[in-house]
Amino acid sequence: VCIVFLLHLRSALVAIIMLPVGILIAFAAMKALGLGSNIMSLGGIAIAVGAMIDAAIVMIENAHKHLERSTPGKPRIEIIIEAASEVGPALFFSLLVITVSFLPIFTLEGEEGRLFGPLAYTKTFAMAAAAFLSVTLVPALMVVFIRGRIIPEHKNPINRVLIWLYRPLIGGVLRARVLTILLALALLGVSVWPARQLGSEFMPTLNEGTLMYMPTTLPGISVTKAAELLQTQNQIIRSFPEVASVYGKAGRAQTATDPAPTEMFETIINLKPKAEWREGVTLDSLKAEMDKALQFPGVSNAWTQPIRARIDMLATGIRTPIGVKVFGTDLAQMEAISRQIETVLKAVPGTSSAYAERVIGGYFLDIVPDRIALGRYGLSVGDVQNAVVMAMGGETVTTTVEGRERYGVAIRYPRDLRSDPQAIAREVQVSTPSGASLPLGEVASVERKRGATSIRTENGELAVYIFVDTVGRDLGGYVRDAQNAIAQSVKLPAGFRIAWSGQFEYLERAEARLKLVVPVTLAIIFLLLYLNFRRLTETFIVMLSLPFALVGGIWLLWWLGFNMSVAVAVGFIALAGVAAETGVIMLI
Fold it and tell me: Which residue ranges traverse the bilayer (predicted)?
């Protein structure tokens, strides 16, 4: 910029030297705080580079102006010092404004805080370094390098063309200033419409190149049936030409940290490169095709991506973008409420699938010792338990040696005697102290009862989850409609409550924090501007320019079909800081 518009190579060295020094200071601060170099932290420096160099360029250009207009014989150093003193304080405060504008990012929590925290730190370090260097190093470098012949602005052909284009434009705007302000206000007012059309989501969806299909069926499904269903689903998925490979499992993995029941499937779908897809097929349309082909009775489909699913499940326990948690004191009543919510959610526009956990769906053998009968025969509860353990679970009685291999030999009752309550009561024998044997039914009741297949607790409360997958709707808009539908159709008894979770939980938390911190940040920026100008008029001019700076971003989001998200909010915050700096520069 200095070379093209000022035609002075040595002036460019001022900016060229100042920029790496500022970046090195930012890296030193990163090392002191233990921040690593990653995409987000380096992205903060990349965002700051443009604003960092602005101060140096403005000071260099102002020094050239003063040298052009200076009287002969006046010392060059004195002219440069006057030029730096004229714009230095304002530039220092403008860089501080950009630094302070990222204050809301530091207050973010959870996933969003960990994601954008490094970016905010490095950008703040870089801008703070730039503010310091703009009033220390840059003036010194200008004294060293800005010397020799200074070409007047009007002798540069590029400047002449730009001035020729800009002068009538600015002249017309100033002559019709009332009309210009009214048009700007009208544009700002019209921008309310696209702003209201924007949906909301936590973060834009990242295409991982892999899909995760997580269907859920009714509890109590046998292992054989689960394996058969899993193989059928994999064959259907493999038939799509965009699919490279499919890997699925039913139930839990071989680890104690995976409590998934047999009725929950997880299928990883590795996709081919986009260039090998059918023409016109997108990720959303491919998921819709697969979902349509994978419709089985009693199976509720859910689609996500592996990394996203793991993050969501670890943070909230919900594996879908949206989840509803029912809290209460009675599992049977909680399941009834969750099923009612499931029915309501399926009728909400944009619902792809809704599945409420079936917690009361398992059958169990309930063996209750009769203590009076036990006392009559001189038996204890432990005697009954030992007999049941040996008959039902089996007991290792010996070891067989096959060459160098050893195998334990366990004995237990055959399957048909272990699954029928009457057979168990009749055939399982309990040894008495006298050496006689009694049928288990003589000293205990054996019944098959229905009970909970799984019990979830959260903060000491019983919980039942409803998993919700959506299509064609933004996160915030869908949840608002769903909340209204549930409020109208579901009446919660005393002692029961519901909570929304999943990615909506992150979105709600970030919105609440930004609504609190952004006004405080604007107040701090207002104070900094007032300390710079010492007049309310100029301060309000800069502050009132901020909404107009966001107009283009709002229209572009609407045109591209993007939703408002935490990432977009971070972008708007950065834009507001740059707009404030531009306003300060224009006023000086």
Answer: 12-33, 39-60, 80-105, 125-148, 169-193, 516-533, 540-560, 566-587
